[in-house]
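EI: anyone free to look at a 290-residue chain?
SC: sure, send it
EI:
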Amino acid sequence: MNYITKKDIALPKRRSNSRKGENGEVLVVGGSSDYVGCLVLAGLAALRSGVDWVTIAAPEKVGWAVSSLSADLVVKKFKGKMFAKEHAKKVIGLSKIFDCVLIGNGIGVADSTKQFVKKVVEINGLKVIDADGVKAVGIDDFDNAIITPHRKEMELFLKNSGFGKKTVDSVVKENDVKKKALLIKKLLGKRIKNNIIVVTGPVDIIISKHRLLFNKTGNAGMTRGGTGDVLAGLAAGFLAQSRDLLQSAVNAVYLNGVIGDILLKKKKGFFYIASDMVEEIERVLKQQNI
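SC: here you go
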């Protein structure tokens, strides 16, 4: 299998005379009454990746909570307990001034929220679709995106893409990682378009229209809540800076796993949490010498 290595990592370069905003701006859209911290984890991970600016778009009370948790994140607050279809027009308008939109973290799965997600992912700009956002869409609903499903989310994503139970079960129940990857790639075929599908797991799968890559950095401690939000934030941050979908996915998946492996040793066990990972990003990028 074609495993990612350190040689495959290429971080965005920052010009010494660059001005604020020239190194990428990310809009993170998500949150609900039950989920706040995921937005902070994703937003700070994007900032740590090197972008100049991150704005969080969230329901009003969620937004105030985010503001209290981090002074580094700008927050745009929307009325209501959760995003609904009627918010889509304003969020789409807001998204036009950003280099990348990350959508889905903690956003919820109410029917109106799913309709909101499906409208927002129609934007032509670069996107990362994560968490509950994945549950709302199928492969034909978007383009120019990195989408990051775990095992259960991949099952829902395939169902939303029009595949029947028998076909979906054949993917879900396949334990051989290479066979699973080839099966997903064959099923989606040309419908992948200009998208990157990252199926997270003990061995991560990265699928583009023309390539199939695997990543084995990371460990069992990364099943802990919030680690996927850090991954999504890194992907959005790298994408906002480089505008390269595949390279951004490769960078994020590999380095997210490296961070987990370093923390496993540092904490002498599975005692690290997602916020530890955010704090480790800067040191890991320096230590990798890439």
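EI: The beta strands are 25-29, 53-59, 74-78, 100-103, 126-129, 145-147, 196-199, 204-207, 212-215.
SC: 👍
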